[in-house]
Amino acid sequence: MKWKLVKLLVVLIMSLVVLSGCTDDITNKIGNKDGNKPNLILPNKVQEWVENSQAIFLGQTYEYDGKLYILATYGTKPSGGFAVKITGVRELNDVIEVDVEFTKPEPGQMVTEAITYPYDLVDIKPTTKEIKFVAAGAEIHVPTLLGVDRLEPIVAGEKGVMVFAPAPNIEIKDGKIIFRGITNTYEGTANYRIKSGSGVVQEGFVTGSMGDWGYFSEVIALPETVSGPLTFEIYIISPKDGKEMDKFSIPLNAAGRKLPPTQGAFPNVQLLPINESAGDPQFKKYLDNLMKAVKEKDVAAFKEHLADDFSYSFGDNANIAGFIQYWGLDKNPAESELWAKLTTAIELGGTFLPSEGKTYYLAPYVYSAFPVEFNEYEFAAITNKNVPVFMEPDKGAQVLEHLDYHLIRLQGSIDNADPWIKIQTSVGNTGYVESVNLRSPLEYRAGFVNEGDRWQMIFFIAGD
Prior knowledge:
Blueprint: H1 2-20, E1 28-33, H2 44-53, E2 57-64, E3 67-74, E4 83-91, E5 95-103, E6 119-124, E7 130-137, E8 145-146, E9 156-158, E10 161-165, E11 176-183, E12 189-196, E13 199-207, E14 213-221, E15 228-237, E16 244-254, H3 281-296, H4 299-303, E17 306-311, H5 320-326, H6 338-347, E18 351-355, E19 358-363, H7 365-368, E20 379-382, E21 387-390, E22 399-403, E23 407-410, E24 420-424, E25 430-434, E26 438-439, E27 445-451, E28 454-461
Parallel strand pairs: 5-7, 8-14, 17-28
Antiparallel strand pairs: 1-6, 2-3, 3-6, 4-5, 9-10, 10-11, 11-14, 12-13, 12-15, 15-16, 18-19, 19-27, 20-23, 20-26, 21-22, 23-24, 24-25, 27-28
């Protein structure tokens, strides 16, 4: 009898210890669904967000009208028997953990033979704390969004690639395709090719994320001779056999595009390197300390140089926390590509810009000093002296001319993974230069501001 009493007391004590270490569930339950609409009226924007998200396996949040909605979606499923349930939301010291249990049908289980979109939705009071999804049951990880706050409407997609733009059948009048979306693929890569009646006219790739859904945005400039109906194909490459897979296409229309009769010569302009950083001793000291942190890949020291409102993308709330996550500084900072890209941008030099009582420093000079009369989507700058222009993408090919810091016209989009870029020179020659000798003003650039007698980095961003 005494032994049973002791065992009972031990169980009670352990239960009290466990309970004392937990926080209260802070959610308001909204709905747990297998693909149907919630049996209640949600605000229209929230309802649209939920419906737009159902086809993706994803955990995300949306703050609206005094509430923070937490949504866990399981994606498109071939039958019933799949389920999602948010089992708890706990507020800890510096994070809010969201427990999500996923269920799959057992082998031989009777299920509904219909496409379903399981999800669960709760709301809590708005918070500035990080929301962390914790998977249980049939899954071990809940993918989240990187580089963008929440989903835009999805116009096309297949498995690991979801496209926000371009929309099907959109008219391409200015020769530029805005390609935006998210990826969750091997190495985060999605490939594309643009086809007309004459064949492939443009191809390349974008990079989002792997394991989570990473945002990408690219402006694709069509060759000036392209018009008429187009097919925009998106696909991924199998890591096993290198074959194309999960391919889908978006029809586009460039029929209304106004083409120039010829792409003639343009003014012969040089953009000589400029580096004004040493002109302000206070900024020079700040920049030296920043580059020391970059060289040593010291994340803590690096963060001390960022402004509170630092931005790294054109999405809403592109803050420091998202920046750290986007560049992998929270997981494997030693292997992050940030250090090399930022070093290149800074070492190319830059210029000071007084504006509205503040002083800014912008780098690289290709961005800060790019002539306004040249279209930044169409032109780029040679960044070295005596750069040969080859007739073919081969160092053994005929050399057409040499360039010294000249502006050139791009004959396609810049692909940093491609060692060659096709260009046109001011005298009309069309050829190839090595990509290491060329830079677009839309590539990664950094901005700094002196406020309150203190320098801080306010952005590091690419694109437009």
